[in-house]
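Sharing a chain and its predicted structure for anyone who wants a worked example. Both blocks are below, sequence first, tokens second.
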Amino acid sequence: MNAAAPALTPTTRALAWCLHLLVIGLLALSAGRAVTGGRSHAGWIVAASVLCALAYAAGPALPGVRRSRRAAALWLAAVGACWLVLLALTPDAVWVAFPLYFLQAHLLSRRAAPTAVAATAAAGVAGFAAHQHSFSPAMAIGPALGAAVAVAVVWGYQALYRESEHRRRLIEELTATRADLAVAQHTAGVLAERDRLAREIHDTLAQGLSSIQLLLRAAERALPEAPRNAARYVDQARQAAVDNLAEARRFVAALTPPTLEGTTLADAVERLCATTSARHPVTARFHLAGTPAPLTTAHEVALLRIAQSALGNTVRHAEATTADVTLSYLGDHIALDVVDDGRGFDLVRLPAPDPETGGFGLTAMRARTQALGGTLTIESGPGHGTVLAARLPLTPPADSEPEARL
């Protein structure tokens, strides 16, 4: 009933009403027995009972009693004073001590409650003994047991309430933690998907658009002296645009790359080499080593994209005349090696990725191999060509995120 006491639940509210009815019933019983018993001071007993009932009824009606332990103590003192007056008039008032035990144990502090309950029990025993004009240990047993039971019940309830509140707070914290975890997982998923989209766009659409640009430049240089060569370059650019449109459509639909549909990885890489040789001034040769073994879609897509990106870099930057692409099945591993005879580059002085000039290819290739538990090594130097080797285990780690829905 105050801020320090546990808040009322529907069950405890019903118990509180039962306690109110018990107090009123016992006061009515005292007044009724005085009237029916024909006692000489029955009027005073009825008046004291009514006064006690009014003092008790003021407690639930006053908001201060619910919020302040001090106000509750003053209210209990007023009720106790009225009860003492009634106890001085009739021995029947001793029964009202029992609900008072519950009120005192519930509303007062843990230190003050036992004192108040003991004082109430002692007053009840003394009042009853005074009316009986004698005292025996049996008179003290009932009030003492009632006081002990009341204190034990109230303190037990308060302990259960505290445990319930602790569990409620833990559940709230768990709910908040789960919500935070869901947000973090969503953010991580968004970042992972963004990274995947960036790799896919670089290895498909960006490479295709770069190839179209190179072909159109070649066609521009061929005009007007060699219109047939220019027409051939334009036709190749048109075919590259068709291929990239198909890639874009499947990319949006999150399907397998068209170059892998209905064929093997080796065939797809071999066609990639043939297409590169036909469209650009570089001879791309394909080599197959070992016995082909079934691969997951994630492995096939990763290796095909790495081959596309590596050959794209060779065409745009290496000024190479030949490029050898080797796909090797090595038992529990599969390797892809791309070797060109271009001008090479300094691995220490690689330019930072830039939205205008590119430079995202090596980062994307390394991310693909690491996602499947593999490694990517690059050997190059100015004037010495470039060797790129991607090595993947055939069984990816359990925590990797397969890119099967590309």
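Comments welcome. The two ends are 64 Å apart (CA to CA).
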